[in-house]
Amino acid sequence: MIRLKTTLTAAAVAAGLLAGTGSAAADPVEAESAQRGGLSRYYDQRLDWAACGHEQLDAAGAQCANVTVPLDYQRPRGRTITVAVSRLKAADPARRRGIMLSNPGGPGGAGLDMMLRVQGWMSPDVRARYDLIGMDPRGIGRSSPVDCKWSVGPMLRSAGVDRAGFDRVVALESDLAKRCAEREGDRLPHITTRNTARDMDVVRGAMGEQRVSYFGWSYGTYLGAVYTQMFPQRTDRFVLDSAVDPRKYGLGMFQDLGAPNEAALDLWAEWTARHDAEYHLGTTAKQVRAGVEELIRRSARTPIRVGDYTVDDNFVPIALFGPLSDPRAYPLLAGQVRELTDAADGKGAPPSPELEQALRFMFGPGAHQDGDGQAAVLCGDVRYQRDPESYWRDIQRSRATQPVFGAFANNITACAFWAQPKERPTVVHNNRPALIVQATGDTRTAYQHGVALHKAMTGSRLVTLKDVPVHAVFGNYPNTCTENVVNTYFADGTLPARDLTCQDDAR
After folding, report:
1. CB atoms within 10 A of CB 331
2. DSSP label of 420
3. Which helix (H) or strand (E) segment is 163 a member of?
4. 496, 481 Cβ separation under 8 angstroms
5. Cα(498)–Cα(485) distance, integer angstroms
6. Relative to the CA of 82, which of 28, 136, 161, 495 has its CA 20 to 30 Å away?
7. By its UniProt entry, which SUPFAM superfamilies does this protein fall under (predicted)?
8. What is the predicted pLDDT for the residue at 4?
């Protein structure tokens, strides 16, 4: 899904052509490119590995390189861009199996340093066998980044409580799309998931590897699934954690966020009520939830001043959405709701560092370089409904059962005003082996999305983490069962004999 740092991580995923059913067949476009041979200079390029100029990567002994790729794969002799990659070499060269590519999600997540975090969750056996490869996808981070000069961070907003709030968002999203078209119009059609998958295959070839293994979170599961469809003979061991249903990538993916976030809000409200002595937000879950809903209405009537920022009903649900992706963040969320409530009551105080970071990411200078790259991929991959009234009708229908998040999950984005995609979406249907890991309470990529991806990839196994409202499991949320399954698969290629369910260690 999408990663919005402290405040927001949303999920997303993208495009291609059906090349076969049952078994994986090479995507026709990719087969045509291979026959032309016009890409050989990219696959055969020599990579110049050097220090990364990144404190943590350099301290870990990583190396970085820039990989040259065509902006437009249909014009391989045309304009080029670069994709930044990092490498943490296998701990035991004698046992090395190959490379493991990765993606942290988003889209829009810079992944150059992702494997620094994930490697700590890998068994010594796995670390011995793989060069771990981080990558900033095209248009993101160090990889020829998109820069539309937005005045805000991500494009995602709640529609608020009434038509006035929705109309504000419509105007904002139209302006954001216009800015990108004016500044980056010639590049935008090529900042897509399909092209990132092609870039991954160029990285594979330039590193002299026949196949790749892969680990991806959230949107990274969609990217990984698209790669298996486009380059089926190049896949080795793929782990797709917190998956997106390829058929719902786009608006349907966002709409499915509403229900699990309402459920997670109830769990948080129960936790907060048990800690009323600290946060004073209510002694029952019903009181806590009612206070949150009233806070949103109050921010619509009178926007809340918090430090240098003004917060209204378009923002408050987003502030809730971020921490709800992990139950360990419940204290953080309770503290921020207390801060916003105090500010609404006129008890102004400088925001905590955590709330300041969240506000700066949404509204502050420089935040645009995360948001516009994310939009380029989300909007460039699939078609979106263009009529604002259709979004408004969905929002209104959702309010009864999703009073906090319906106006966010069903809201309009800049994609409604974007140019139509250059390629058709990828239909994922193959039998490539993969391990899919999904928590039942995932608030970013709903559990049914993992089930759907498992059905689309008939050679996969599904590992369910039961009754945990967390997004991103392996490498993020401690669980002995899921860690053992993932490490076993990466180490020796053994998938579970059947789908399995893991219990939360914390229970």
Report:
1. 15
2. P
3. helix 163-184
4. no
5. 12
6. 28
7. alpha/beta-Hydrolases (SSF53474)
8. 40
Checking DSSP bridges between strand 212-217 and strand 98-103, what pairing results, if any? parallel
Of 64, 42, 75, nearest in space to 199 by CA: 42
Q: What is the mean pLDDT of the chain?
A: 92
Domains and CATH numbers, the chain: 2-146+187-250+425-502 (3.40.50.1820), 149-186+258-381+383-420 (no CATH)
Q: Is 80 exceeded by the pLDDT of residue 235?
A: yes
484's CB contacts (< 8 A; 6+ apart) are none
Please compute Rg for the chain using Cα positions. Answer: 22
Q: What is the pTM of this model?
A: 0.94
3-state secondary structure of 136: coil
Contact between 146 and 373 (Cβ < 8 Å): yes
> Torsions phi, psi of 349, nearest 5?
-155, 155
User: Comparing C-alpha atoms, which of 55, 105, 7 is closest to residue 351?
Assistant: 7
Strands (E), 312-450: 434-439
Residue type, 446: A
Would you call 462 helix, strand, or coil by DSSP?
strand
Strand 80-88 with 130-135, pairing = antiparallel
Is pLDDT larger for residue 32 or for residue 185?
185
How much is the average pLDDT of 38-42?
A: 95
End-to-end CA distance of the chain: 27
- Amino acid sitting at position 485: V
pLDDT band, residue 36 (cuts 50/70/90):
very low
> In terms of C-beta density within 10 A (0-12 exposed, 13-18 middle, 19 or more buried), how is residue 349 classed?
exposed
Please identify which residue in the block is written with the tokens 């529609």.
Answer: 159
Percent of the chain whose predicted confidence (pLDDT) is above 90: 88
| Percentage of the chain lying above the pLDDT 70 cut | 92
Q: Report the alpha-carbon distance of residue 125 to residue 129 in Å, rounded.
A: 7
Can you count the helices (H) and strands (E) in the chain? 20, 13
User: Which tens digits make up the pLDDT trace of 367-415?
Assistant: 666 799 999 999 999 999 999 999 999 999 999 999 999 999 999 999 9
Burial of 182 (0-12, 13-18, 19+ CB in 10 A): exposed
